[in-house]
């Protein structure tokens, strides 16, 4: 019923995935989250024994891997034991080199992204052999993707089946596929080949275009990784990827980094957040996103988020605290620019009713429009009967629609108040409201403040 899911996977993989170094022929990995690179870093091979505590080992070669030890015995109506696989792109901050990912599905080069694999199957065991293609609304390089997960099953045994339910049958990439759809916090779209196959060579957009046409995915989302491997429920020894290939429509051999972003500035500083904006970088091919780095008053900078635009809202900060920020650009080949200028901010002391926090996230963006989300949390020691959030935009944005909240303003600043059904929050409890907006020129994150009704 479930294929490669569980929300716990996001936390565990992010916390424990490790890169063990360049691979030579016949490197054996038995570590639960062990991984290594092959072909000079072009691809990453991962053991990814995420769903089982029994030992699994893979024998890594320069073209793929073979499962040499596995004693999985998982119920076939539940989650599999693992996903040993080879991939190009980025998965929980482990990235291959030269993949050109993340890449937005609206990019002209996306049509040229291709991949191929040759699988080898044992005579026993219960498993599927599948691609896992990950998409995120942002150019994410770490953590759980929240857009779409496309699984392409070339073969399966036993009674296992994908997430959700079967919704259609289509002819794609030289085969006939049953289409399954479900949602587990992100859209899972699975294509199950009706006749088993050991090999396939296809353009990623062949399947992604079908998912977009069904409303399960968006062109504004980013492809972050292309993975091929196996989900074993029972056994697993003998499963093998003999060859794996990936190519992109980008410029081969691009080693030129983007220029450094300029004019980094802060605005809308509150007790718990700050808005950042900067001037765009330039690149010989194209900038795909920006990394935002943060440090305390002293100490090292670390990446705290990414943005596909020239603005970012950092939330969840401490009151009366000094923070420093820098920004760097990334291009399609994974080249990283020098950092921008450093901007220093000190958050305010709080107040405004207290006991309430609001965290803003831009969840979508398109030409002239965007979608935002605000998570409201009761940070006090007693329950609320209501709350109000003020959004102050610095780029001339206009809010056109709000849900799970209400506002009477037609221009910034906007005060959004709770609905009758989500105003009462126990201590530590949260609720969410969303909105649609329009913008011209730039779309910096708004300054956000929150007040509670006692």
Automatic annotation (TrEMBL):
**InterPro entries xref list:** CBD2, CBM2/CBM3_carb-bd_dom_sf, CBM2_carb-bd_dom_sf, ConA-like_dom_sf, FN3_dom, FN3_sf, GH11/12, GH12
Q: Which SMART domains match?
A: CBD_II, FN3
Q: Where does the UniProt annotation place the signal sequence?
A: 1-25
Keyword Amino-acid biosynthesis among UniProt keywords: no
A GO biological process this protein is involved in? polysaccharide catabolic process
Q: Which Gene3D superfamilies match?
A: 2.60.120.180, 2.60.40.290, Immunoglobulins
Which keywords does the record carry? Answer: Carbohydrate metabolism, Glycosidase, Hydrolase, Polysaccharide degradation, Signal
Query: What Gene Ontology terms describe what this protein does at the molecular function level?
Result: cellulase activity; polysaccharide binding
Any one Pfam family match given in the protein's UniProt record, by short name = Glyco_hydro_12
Q: Where would I find the Fibronectin type-III domain in this sequence?
A: 260-350
Q: Where is the CBM2 domain?
A: 349-453
CDD domains in the record, alphabetically? FN3
State the similarity comment. Answer: Belongs to the glycosyl hydrolase 12 (cellulase H) family.
Question: By what name is this protein known?
Answer: Glycosyl hydrolase family 5
**Native organism:** Nonomuraea cavernae
Organismal lineage: Bacteria, Bacillati, Actinomycetota, Actinomycetes, Streptosporangiales
């Amino acid at each position: 019923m479930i294929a490669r899911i569980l929300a716990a996977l996001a936390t565990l993989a992010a916390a424990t995935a490790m890169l063990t170094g360049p691979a030579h022929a016949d490197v054996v990995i038995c570590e639960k989250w062990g991984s290594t690179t092959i072909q000079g870093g072009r691809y990453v091979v991962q053991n990814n024994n995420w769903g089982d505590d029994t030992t699994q080992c893979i024998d890594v070669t320069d073209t793929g891997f073979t499962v040499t030890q596995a004693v999985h015995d998982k119920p076939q109506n539940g989650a599999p034991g693992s996903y040993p696989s080879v991939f190009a792109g980025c998965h929980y901050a482990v990235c291959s080199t030269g993949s050109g990912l993340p890449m937005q599905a609206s990019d002209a080069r996306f049509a040229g992204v291709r991949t191929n694999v040759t699988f080898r199957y044992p005579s026993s065991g219960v498993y599927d052999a599948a691609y896992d293609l990950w998409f995120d609304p942002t150019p994410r390089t770490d953590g759980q993707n929240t857009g779409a997960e496309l699984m392409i099953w070339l073969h399966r045994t036993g009674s296992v089946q994908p997430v959700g339910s079967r919704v259609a049958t289509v002819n794609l990439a030289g085969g006939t596929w049953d289409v399954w759809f479900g949602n587990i916090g992100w859209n899972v779209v699975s294509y199950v080949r009706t006749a088993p196959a050991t090999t396939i060579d296809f353009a990623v957009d062949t399947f992604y275009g079908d998912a977009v046409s069904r409303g399960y995915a968006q062109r504004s989302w980013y492809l972050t990784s292309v993975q091929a491997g196996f989900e074993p429920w029972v056994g697993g020894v003998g499963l093998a990827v003999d060859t794996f290939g990936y190519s992109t429509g980008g410029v081969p051999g691009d080693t030129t980094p983007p220029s450094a972003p300029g004019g980094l500035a802060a605005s809308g500083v509150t007790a718990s957040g700050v808005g950042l904006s900067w001037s765009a970088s330039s690149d010989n091919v194209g900038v795909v996103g920006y990394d935002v780095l943060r440090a305390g008053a002293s100490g090292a900078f670390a990446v705290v988020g990414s943005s596909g635009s020239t603005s970012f809202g950092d939330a969840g900060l401490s009151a009366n605290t000094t923070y420093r920020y820098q920004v760097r650009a990334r291009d399609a080949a994974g080249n990283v620019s020098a950092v921008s200028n450093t901007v220093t901010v000190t958050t305010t002391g709080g107040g405004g009713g207290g006991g309430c926090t609001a965290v803003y996230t831009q969840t979508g963006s398109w030409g002239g429009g965007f979608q935002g989300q605000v998570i409201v949390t009761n940070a006090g020691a007693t329950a609320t009967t209501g709350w109000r959030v003020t959004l102050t935009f610095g780029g001339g944005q206009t809010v056109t629609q709000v849900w799970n909240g209400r506002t009477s303003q037609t221009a910034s600043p906007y005060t959004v108040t709770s609905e009758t059904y989500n105003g009462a929050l126990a201590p530590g409890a949260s609720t969410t409201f969303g909105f649609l907006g329009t913008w011209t020129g730039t779309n910096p994150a708004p300054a956000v403040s929150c007040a509670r009704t006692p």
